Amino acid sequence: ALELVRLLASVSPGDLNTVKLLSGGSEANEAAIKLTKQYHRQTGNPLKHKFIALYGSYHGATQGALSATGGKGRKAPFEPLTPGFIHVQPPYCYRCPYEKTYPACEVFCARTIEDVIVAEGPETVAGLIVEPIVNTAGVATPPPEYLPTLREICDRHNVLLIFDEIITGFGRTGHLFAADLYHTVPDILSCGKGMSSGYAPLAAVLVRDKIAAAFQGRAEDRVEFHHGHTYGGHPVASAAGIASIREILDRRLPEHAQKMGVRLRELLAEHLGPLGIVGDIRGPGLLVGVEFVRDPATRRRFDDRLAIGRRIGKAALRNGLLVRSDVHMVTFAPPLVVEEADLVAMVDILARSAREVLREL
Q1: Helices and strands: H and E segment counts in the chain
Q2: DSSP assignment letter at 298
Q3: Do β-strands 125-130 and 160-165 pair in parallel, antiparallel, or remain unpaired?
Q4: What residues make up the domain containing 271?
Q5: Last residue of a domain, one of 250, 269, 294
Q6: What is the mean pLDDT, run by run of 10 residues, along the chain of 361 residues?
Q7: Domain containing residue 352: CATH number
Q8: Which of 139, 203, 247, 281 could disulfide-link 192, Cβ–Cβ 3.0 to 4.6 Å?
């Protein structure tokens, strides 16, 4: 476990040098939320308890993580959840929820979060938790200024910025972390999934030095982080994590993902574009979403009841390709070791499946 901690600290962005090991993404985000609350309590701001999160996001299935989650379908069976979570619209430039156009908008979706903090009272807002790429909101990919703007806003109001990189971490975006892609260091970074490549249950929260300092002191001061799980730092899981991360680094898989991601987007445009139903192809590295529309010129969607994305996804599965699908989307997240021949085969199956579905309409 200590070897894994040292390895994580050595590759993490900025001064994210303190590591808490856990067993899964929900645990990691739960820990990030609790750590944020305890930090403010121990630094003289006990009223700070609210969190801002994004609609469409997914942060986990446990109580706090689910409260931060922005999808109503996952939350409805368990409401009311933990109070104090406020949601705002994600950075969805193709279909802006604020009806603005980038770059003329000057990244309004980020700037308006400061208005929310001020309206709620900065003395009550503890943290802002975001997925750098909002996967369940349709691979909502922010413009370059978005996350740096959030960093500036959080600094102005003493709000901790939390990146949920459970999906985007460890090479998925063409960089080891999406924080590197957007040149923004959060106060807390949650990671998992690719951390062990699925070979063992493993996750972590990475914490900046200035935040970690608030939890250092004498035993009798009781300022340690009051949070633990039975299998956090399990030696077998830690060994899997070390092996996975070293493989990712030694084989330069983030760079490979960046190269293959460019080719994937080219292939999708080449093979799906002629079908006349592709509105947008987006996402960095090997996290790529395809949004289907009835009319690309006007961006008019298919009727929700048709569930075009899910129908194409099911047809693809019958034809031998597993993709994530939603009402209007399919999403690719192939292994980081994928080669061009694999991408050609995947896109060929998807295009064939889309043609099958269109013939049925």
Answers
A1: 12, 11
A2: T
A3: parallel
A4: 253-360
A5: 250
A6: 97 97 97 98 97 97 96 92 97 97 97 98 98 96 98 98 98 98 98 96 98 95 91 96 98 98 98 97 98 97 97 98 97 98 98 97 88
A7: 3.90.1150.10
A8: 203
